[in-house]
Amino acid sequence: MTTPATRPDPVDVLIIGAGGASGATTAKVLTEAGLRVVGLERGPFLRPEHFSGDEIKYINRNYLWPDPVLNPRTVRRDETQTAVLEQFSNTPHCVGGGTIHYSGWFPRATENDFRMRSLHGDVEGASLADWPFSYDDLEPYYSRIEWEFGVSGQQGANKHEGPRSRDYPCPPPPVSRYGKVFYDAMAKLGHNAFPMPQSILTRPHNGRQPSPNAGFVQQFGDPTDGRSTTQRVFTPDALATGRYDLRTDCYVHEITTTADGRAKGAVYEDSQGRMVEQEATAVIVCCGAIESARLLLASRSAHFPDGLANNSGQLGRNATFHDYFFAIGLFDRELTDPLYGWAGNYVNGTTFDFYETDEDRGGIAGCVITASGLGPPVNWTFPGRPTWGQAAKDTDREFFNHSMKIGVLLNDLPRESNRVDLDPDVKDAWGQPAARITHTNHPNDVVIGNWQVRKNLEILDAAGAASTIPVWFEQAKGNSCHQHGTARMGNDPATSVLDKWGRAHDVPNLFVLDGSGFPTGPGVNPTLTIMANAWRCAEHLVQERVA
Amino acid sequence: MSTDRTEARSGPIADGAGQDGSGSSSTSQADWGVVHLPEEGRLFFDAHQWGVIEAAAERIIPADHDPGAKDAGVVRFIDRYLAGHVYAAADGNGFLVQTGKAAAAWAQRTQTMQERYTQGVSDIEDISDRRYGTSYIDLDPEQQDAVLVEVSGRPKPSDFVARLRAEGKLTAQGEQRSASGVDPSPAEEGGAPPSNQPVPDDALDFFPMLLLHVRQGFYADPAYGGNRDHVGWRTIGFPGPTSLGQTQRGEFSTNDYLLPELEWPYTDQ
Fold it and tell me: By CB count within 10 A, which of A28, A351, B50, B74 is most buried?
C-alpha cells in the first residue's frame, strides 16, 4: 500500500459507500443527530440533469453500471472450478447507488421472512437463519422510509402484508394496459393482485413533483422529481446539516485498524489519484453485500489475518442474489387491444399469493411475481424471436405492442458454500483483488422457480395470450441486482459476523449496514428493508453514544 | 462540484473538458464534456466498408411498406460508435467525451469492435467474390442474404408470425383462437438473452455484433445517428420522445397509453 499523502482531521463517523441506499440513510440519521460524518463514495455525483430517456446509454452501454474492464468480478459454480469473468449483480457506482437505476419496487418483507429457520428448521444443503429481530421491530422504520420517499401503494390491497402503522403516502400510479390484462386474469383465477408499492411519486410530496410517467424506468436514471432516490432525498438532507463531508470519486483500498483491534479509518485514492487516510471514531461500511465483503476481506492485518471482522470464518458466506426469469405472452392484435408494455413505471400488478410456503409446490418459500412489458424498443425481445430479415421485422411489428411478461423474482435459499471471496488472480483497475462469487442454487430454488414459471404461463393463458413462452430457471442469464447475506447479523459470534445492530462482533466500532447483514434474504426487492434497517441501526448507534 | 459541461463548437471533432489540459482537471464522469459531430461524413469506416455495412444492414432490417435500416441511417449509428462516440449527451445534443479510467476501458473495447468489423467486412467480401465474383454491394438481395447465411453459419430466420398463424395461434379476424399451448423447449434464436442484463457487445462475434448494432441503430434515439425521423419507432408503434432533451426536461409522458380512470382492483371479473 502506498503511504497516504494526506491525513485530514479525524471525524466522528466515516461511511464507506456513502451514496447508496444504506450509506445515505445512515448519513442522514447521524448528521441530523449532530455527528460529524465523512462519506466516501467511489462513484461520481451524477445529478438529475445527467439523466434522460436514452435506452442505449443505460441498458446497453453501462453508463450507470460498473465498467467490467475496470471493475471485474469472477464467478464459478463451486470450489473445484476456476472462476471466469462475468458482469455479476450490477449496481451503479454513484451517489444514489442502486436507487438510481432501480424501478423503485418498494415492497416490505413479510413477517415470515424474519423467521425462516423457525418455520422450516434444518433444510439439507441450506443455511436458513432467523433474523435477530422481527418484522415488528422494523415496522416503524419501514413507515419512516415510505413517508420520506413518498411511496405509492394501495392500502389494504395486499392481504399477505404485515401490520402497518401508516397508510402509503401516495396512491398507486395509473394502471397500464398490460396491467389490466394481468388483473383480469388473476381475478378469473381467483387470486389477489394489487399494484406493487413503488418509490415513485404520484402526487406532490415534500416539495417534489409527481412523475410524468415517461416510461424510461428500469436501469435508467430519472431526470425528473418523480422517482425517489437517496441522491434526491437523503443525501441533500445530510448535506443540509453542515456536518456532512461527502467526497465522491474516492476509492477505498483498505480499512485500517489500531494495534488493539479497533477500526481506525480508511485509506482511499481520491479523484486525483492521491492517497488519503481518513480516521474516525466509528467506521460504517455500506458498499453492498459483494463489495462490503470484498473490502473487509481485503483489509487484512496481523490482528485480522483472514480479513476484518472474520473471526467466525463466515464473512462472505451465505450470500443470496435472487434471480429473475419469466413467462412471456404474445397477443393477437385482432383480438386484444395494444398492451403498450413500455408505458408507465415498468411494473404494474403483483401478488403475494405464491410467496409464503406451500409444500404442494414441491418445496419451501415462494416468489413474488410482477407483470411488465418486454422492454423498450432496442432490448425488447423473447426467446425464439427471429434475429434478422423480413421475419424479424414482421415479428417486431406484430408483437412490440402486443406482448407482456410475468416475472419471477427467485427467492433463493442461503447456503454456506455460496459466497464472496477474493479472486487470487484477477485485479481491478485500482490493483485490488476482484470479488469472486462461488454460487450454485439450492435444488429448492429450481423447483420453486420453475413451478412459478409454469403458474405464470397459466396466468397468461387465462389472460388470452395467443402464444406463451417460458424462460425457465435454467435459461436465466444472470441474477438480479440484489445482494444479501455476506455478513450475517446474529446473536452468536461463532455463526454470525454482525450483532443485531449491524456492529461487527469482532470490532466494536465497525458496522456494516447494507444488505450484507440479512441472515436470510427476503424474497422481495431488498432496498426498502436495507434502508429501514440502516435507519434502525444508525439510530441505535446515536442513542448508545449519548448514553 | 460543477456539472457545467464545456461545449466545444469550434471544430467537427473537438475535445471537451479535461482532454487537453485546458479545461477542468477532473476525470469525474459528472464532468465529462460534450463534442458535436458532423451531420454528414464518415468517422471510422472507409467508403467501401460503409457501403458493405449499409447493404448488409438493409438485409437485416429490409425496407417493405415501412422503411428499413438504410433509410434509418443505421450505418451512421455504427460508424459513430466505432469512432469512439459511446454516450449521447443527456439532452441528445452531442456526445460525451469520456476521461480517465473509463476512457481507457472504452478505447480497449472500441478497438476490439473495430477489428471485428474490419475483418467482418473483409469476410463478407471474400464470400461474395468466391460465390458471385463481385462485391457484396453489387449483389441482388437474395445473393446478399445467402452471403449473410454463410457468415452466420445458420439458416436465415424463418417466418415466425406465419408459423403462429399456421398453428392456429394467431387468427384472421373473426376466427376462433385455439389453445395457446406451451413449447417447453428452450428456443434457439432470439438475439439478446432472456434477461434484463444484456451481454457486453464487444464479447460477440462479428455477425451477432452486427445484428445487435443494426437493431440498436434502427430503434435507438435519433441522437445516435440512426432511427432517422423515428422511422424505427414508427414501424413498431412506439411513440417515443421528440428528443432526449424532452425527457431530460420531464416533458415526455406515456399517460395517454395508460388507464388512469380505473381504480383498484381494476377488474370487472
Answer: B74
| ipTM of the modeled complex | 0.96
Q: For residue A196, give the chain B residue with the closest CA.
A: B264
**Domain spans, chain A:** 11-546
Task: Reduce the DSSP state of residue A443 to 3 states and report it.
Answer: helix
Q: Is B169 on the interface with A (CB under 8 A)?
A: yes
Q: What percent of chain A has pLDDT over 70?
A: 99
Q: Determine the Cα–Cα distance for residues A186 and A196; give it in Å rounded to an integer.
A: 15
- Percent helix, strand and coil across chain A, each to the nearest 5: 25, 20, 55
| Dist CA A73 CA A382 (whole Å) | 27
Q: Looking at A152-161, A341-350, A509-518, which range is the least confident one?
A: A341-350
Per residue in A208-267, pLDDT (tens digit) is: 999 999 999 999 999 999 999 999 999 999 999 999 999 999 999 999 999 999 999 999
Of A535, A543, A533, A531, nearest to A98 by C-alpha is: A531
Contact A248 B145 (CB under 8 A): no
Q: B158 and A386 in contact by Cβ < 8 A? A: yes
Which CATH code is given to the segment(s) A11-546? Answer: 3.50.50.60
Strands (E), A433-483: 433-438, 467-471
- Within 345-364 of A, beta carbons closer than 8 Å to B belong to 349
Alpha carbon distance A335, A418 (integer Å): 47
**Among A256, A251, A294, CA closest to A487:** A294
Spell out which residues of chain B touch residue A177, defining contact as CB-CB under 8 Å: 257-259
Closest CA to A510 of A483, A487, A491, A528: A487
Which chain B residue has the Cα nearest residue A385? B190
Q: CA torsion B127→B128→B134→B138, rounded to 10°?
A: -160
User: Could you tell me if A389 lies within 8 Å of chain B, comparing CB atoms?
Assistant: yes
Grid cell locating A324: 429473475
Beta-carbon neighbour count of residue A359 at 10 Å? 7
Interface with A, mutate which of B60, B249, B254 (most A CBs under 10 A): B254
CA-based nearest residue in chain B for residue A340: B257
Q: Using CA atoms, how far apart are residues A221 and A102, in angstroms rounded to an integer?
A: 8
Return contacts of A489-492, CB within 8 angstroms, 24+ apart.
A489/A131, A489/A132, A489/A517, A489/A518, A489/A519, A490/A129, A490/A132, A490/A519, A491/A132
Burial of B237 (0-12, 13-18, 19+ CB in 10 A): middle
Pairing of strands A419-427, A433-438: antiparallel
B161: contact with A, CB 8 A cutoff = yes
Which of A47, A67, A384 lies at the smallest CB-CB distance from B102? Answer: A67
Q: Shortest CB distance from A69 goes to which of B108, B193, B255?
A: B108
Please state at what angle helix B100-132 crosses helix B47-60, rounded to 10 degrees: 80
Among A61, A383, A478, whose Cβ lies nearest the Cβ of B186? Answer: A383
Question: Which residue from B minimizes the CA distance to A407?
Answer: B195
With CA atoms as reference, the chain B residue closest to A454 would be: B182
A159 touches chain B (CB under 8 A): no
Residue B200: its pLDDT value, please? 78
Number of inter-chain CB pairs under 8 A, A vs B: 327
User: So what's the pLDDT on residue B195?
Assistant: 47
Q: What is the Cα–Cα distance from B111 to B116, expressed in whole angstroms?
A: 9
A84 touches chain B (CB under 8 A): no
Q: Which of A214, A248, A457 sits opposite B254 (nearest CB)?
A: A214
pLDDT tier at A329 (50, 70, 90 boundaries)? very high
